[in-house]
Design brief:
By secondary structure, the protein is of the alpha/beta class. It has one domain (6-209): 4-Layer Sandwich (Metallo-beta-lactamase, Chain A). It is built from 9 helices and 15 strands. The protein has helices spanning 52-58, 80-85, 95-100, 109-114, 182-194, 210-232, 237-245, 251-254, 261-269; strands at 6-13, 16-23, 34-39, 42-44, 66-68, 91-93, 124-125, 131-133, 138-143, 152-156, 161-165, 176-177, 199-202, 207-208, 259-260. The protein has a 7-stranded mixed beta sheet. The chain has a 6-stranded mixed beta sheet with strand order 8-9-10-11-13-14. A hairpin with a 4-residue loop joins strand 10 (152-156) and strand 11.
Length: 279
């Protein structure tokens, strides 16, 4: 049983069930939201460790045939060990994801507080890297580098629903982990657009349309062009960040530089991250 207070919301949107979960701070406010999705008997991602027990209570296992993981980060496979060993639900991921979540991991304190540390476990490698079968059709697998190299997204071809999880950053966030690459993210968004999805589901529970993707691409391209112009004129990345965004996010201090707006500016310009990933 988790000692952390968590909040779970279940949202039904057309034929998708969204499980939105977050750890709460001392004031009862959510730290960061992350979502799992259920469609056609497939559970996409498994939440985080702190919310694991409450999340599992919400699931109707009569409707879950299998689960698939988008990638290996701790906020996406929290309930995986239990799904496999308590409920006999097969869980799949690509080769790198399967390798990484079976390894002991070290997590920085702020991420331990936000999401917790899930148990390493052995999952099945996807037998087909092009699609995964559902009870009513299939999900096309879309390689989606940018957030991490092994991230994959899932496109329901019949309904034209795209489950993008962490494939791109919303302009309302405007922050970047030091391992992320926004230039690759924009290439991934272009790939998404070519699928002509009706809806795009992100891990933070926002639902986008292709028009939203057009606006997002325009926004990040403008930020990139402006950042490069300012850098070429001799302005340092930290001051570029201040000119564009006004101030740094408080998360930079909380994460010791792992997550910041300066990371975003530096990466858009093509510079190395200022701080190396600690773990």
């Amino acid at each position: 049983m988790s000692i952390f207070s968590v909040k779970i919301e279940i949202i039904e949107f057309e034929d998708v069930k969204i499980y939105r979960m977050a750890t709460l701070d001392n004031n009862g406010q959510p730290l960061m939201w992350v979502s799992s999705f259920l469609i056609d008997g497939i559970l996409i991602d498994c939440g985080h460790q702190h919310a694991k027990d409450e999340f599992l209570k919400t699931l109707d296992f009569d409707y879950i045939e299998k689960s698939v993981l988008s990638h290996h980060h701790e906020d996406h496979f929290g309930a995986t060990f239990d799904l496999i060993n308590r409920y006999n639900i097969p869980v799949f991921g690509n080769k790198e994801t399967a390798f990484l979540i079976n390894m002991p991991i070290r997590i920085p304190p702020e991420r331990m507080l936000t999401w917790g540390k899930p148990k390493p476990c052995k999952i099945n490698e996807l037998p087909n890297l092009n699609e995964i079968k559902t009870s009513k059709g299939s999900l096309k697998i879309i390689p989606s580098p940018g957030h991490c190299n092994n991230l994959i997204s899932f496109f329901h071809k019949k309904k034209k629903f795209l489950f993008a999880t962490d494939a791109f950053i919303d302009k309302r966030q405007s922050i970047l982990f030091n391992w992320e690459n926004p230039n690759l993210m924009t290439q991934t968004i272009e790939k998404f657009k070519s699928l002509h999805p009706k809806y795009i589901f992100s891990a933070n529970s926002n639902i986008f349309t292709t028009e939203d993707l057009d606006e997002l691409l325009l926004y990040w391209n403008e930020i990139k062009i402006r950042s490069i112009e300012l850098y070429d004129s001799g302005i340092k990345p930290r001051n570029i960040m201040k000119q564009i965004f006004g101030r740094e996010t408080s998360l930079k201090r909380a994460t010791k530089g792992d997550l910041s707006r300066e990371n975003l500016v530096r990466s858009l310009i093509g510079l190395e991250p200022l701080f190396k990933n600690r773990f």
